[in-house]
Amino acid sequence: MSVMPQTTLPSAAAAPADVSVPPARSGRVRRLSGRDRLVLGLMVGLPTLIQVVLVWIPTLLSVGLSFTKWNGLNLADIRPAGLSNYTYAAQEYPPFWPAVAHNIIWLAFLALVATPIGLLLAVLLDQKIRGTRLYQSIFFTPVMLSMVMVGIIWQLVYARNEGLLNNLLGTAGTPGAVDWFGDSDVNLWAALVATTWRHAGYIMVLYLAGLKGIDPSLREAAALDGANAWQMFFRVVFPVMRPINIVIVVITIIEALRAFDIVYLINKGTNGLELLSVLVIQNLVGVGQVIGVGSALAVILLVISLGPIVYYLVRTFRRAD
Amino acid sequence: MALPPSTPSAIPSDSRLNRRTLLKGIGGVTTALAAAPLLAACSGGSPQAAKSANATSLGSGLSDPVPRSAIQAMVDAYKSKSGATVKMNVMPRAQLVDNISSYLQSNPEDVITWFAGYKMRYYAAKGLLAPVDDVWEKIGGNFSEGLTTASQGDDGKKYFVPNYNYPWGFFYRKSLWAERGYKVPGTFDAFLALCAQMKKDGLIPIAFADKDGWPAMGTFDYLNMRTNGYQFHVDLCAHKESWDQQKVKDVFDNWKALLPYQDKAALGATWQEGARTMTGKKSGMYLIGAFIAQDVSDKAILADLDFFPFPAIAVEGTDAIEAPIDGFVLSKRGGSNKTAKDMLAFFGSGAGQDAYAAKDASNLQTAKDANTSSFSELNRKGAAAISGAKHISQFFDRDALPAMANNVMIPALQGFLKDGTIDTRNLEAQAKSLYAAE
Hints:
The complex is a heterodimer.
Chain A: H1 4-7, H2 14-20, H3 25-31, H4 34-65, E1 68-69, E2 79-80, H5 84-92, H6 96-126, H7 132-144, H8 147-158, H9 164-169, H10 187-212, H11 216-224, H12 229-240, H13 242-258, H14 261-267, H15 276-284, H16 291-320
Antiparallel strand pairs in A: 1-2
Chain B: H1 7-15, H2 19-43, H3 47-53, E1 55-60, H4 65-82, E2 85-90, H5 93-98, H6 100-105, E3 111-115, H7 118-125, H8 133-139, H9 145-150, E4 160-165, E5 168-173, H10 174-180, H11 188-200, E6 204-207, H12 215-228, H13 230-237, H14 246-258, H15 271-279, E7 283-289, H16 292-295, H17 299-304, E8 305-308, E9 320-322, E10 325-330, H18 338-347, H19 350-357, E11 364-365, H20 377-387, E12 391-393, H21 396-399, H22 402-419, H23 424-436
Parallel strand pairs in B: 1-2, 1-3, 6-7, 9-12
Antiparallel strand pairs in B: 3-10, 4-10, 4-11, 5-7, 5-8
Helix pairs in contact in B: 4-19, 8-18, 12-13, 12-14, 22-23
């Protein structure tokens, strides 16, 4: 914080004034007038306040409530429950472990299929092919749709009797028709395909931006050294894009953890589509509210999410230093 | 206030008033207005205040166009009958249902649209609803025994005024059954034999849909009531009975006999899709609520629909019927409002319910003195089944703790439909944790 005024504040108008002021401690004191301090205080204080009120206090309350039993009616009804909500989730609540497994599958699928598809699209569209802008727009369109819209669109594809897919397969209306969203053996994969449709476009745009930013002289140098396209990409381009890669890893992990909308739209996240985020909502909001259990599930999800977030922040700040 | 037709003749006589009397009049009014606060201050109640006391409010979760206009008609009928003012607050159904506890604790309207069952008894026991026994003294004679018990809280006081209900039963197409010579089965064995026959005839015997999780609860409710009786069902729902006992296992054993005859595609189908297999004669019958009529737009098919009660299994014959009741409760604050109670008494009368039914014909009025002449044949049959029932259950998600229905039963029943296994010990463990939190 202390270096900020020197590194970021100087503007065209302020620069000449800086020269005349001795760069000592006294200088800094004089430069921050009362008004500056007020402005800075507001700029730092307001976001901090919002952060504390909207993020930290609710988080801590959730953690606290996860060790209690409460019917949500009267504060006097809150009773301590120790770890019982956690043991309930882990041992008695049947959807819990399937949800964990599905979140892992979701992550693996995004990381191993969806993200590489986005990468491939980006590399292909980065070539000077005709109509690349058009293709980019087409692949990016799903990203601009909300996940709810994506779900509705894919419902049209997957519907058992009226759906596009079963009609193409010629099984629509017959007993052999696959029930893409109803059969718990296939519905997770069907949902993942729909998610990929959107996720790949997102990754593509991020990568395209990164690819455009690569110094062309690097490629020229590699070409002069006789690198083929394969080597050019994996030995030169990919390593140079390291900052983007980290962002994409983090985005992929976060997308996998916060996956929610599409399964909720399909069948409210039951019958083979259980995810941790859905269980949190199911137990915390609406008719199925069990505040203790819902909070415990939310804390579990928080702890899992903290992993990639901390990793990302540590990396970012280490580089800033 | 409509002017009586005689007013035109009054106008000339008014116009004959000279300016002086008019001014005098105005002066008088002004003095009266100025004095009003003083009067109010010393007497503690001016006529103005008395008039505003003749007011109440209604919080309604019936936000779909048809029920919304029906509730409005009901309120309008009360307003014109009593001259009271009624403030309406219509909110989306999910908003009312999902946030009911915070709503009841904050600043609720006096009268609220709500449901009978555990969902009502729970909030009554928490002291968030006001008893309406004095209203029942006026309307009690209007309701059958089943409706009366369904309106009681755990303490024996009444907390609920029924408006309408709709029965659950097996719906089928008369023409299909006549063509194939099927007979309405009275016993479970006859029922299973009929299913086997339908299967042989190339039909899906029982249309079934459980994508949304709740429709399967209807099958569970009936199987439990027919296997173990109404009281056991209600006690199990309220977790006064354990889930981990032979009686519950018997229910699922009976269900296992049904499983081969229920539509295999149930887990991917909504109740409307299930209805279409029955109306399209691909399946023989469909266990669903009478609201199925809302989804049938073809008048000819609607006239061809009939229904029969769930056949008898072990106890009580077909005495119990599943017929969720929608009605009204009084918030704690509304308990001291005489107008609110007066309005509830009106809602519990045939006149009030007829005003509703005139706009929404898919439900059945509950009051005995309601006008049933406009009933379709199907409605008439449903009403007869309900009034003949000794016990009325409210559907699992209204009879049980909502979290039990939503978080435990939906996945458990969907799992059962998939592989025919159920872990009653785990159901009991979950029930214990959830009911303990209340």
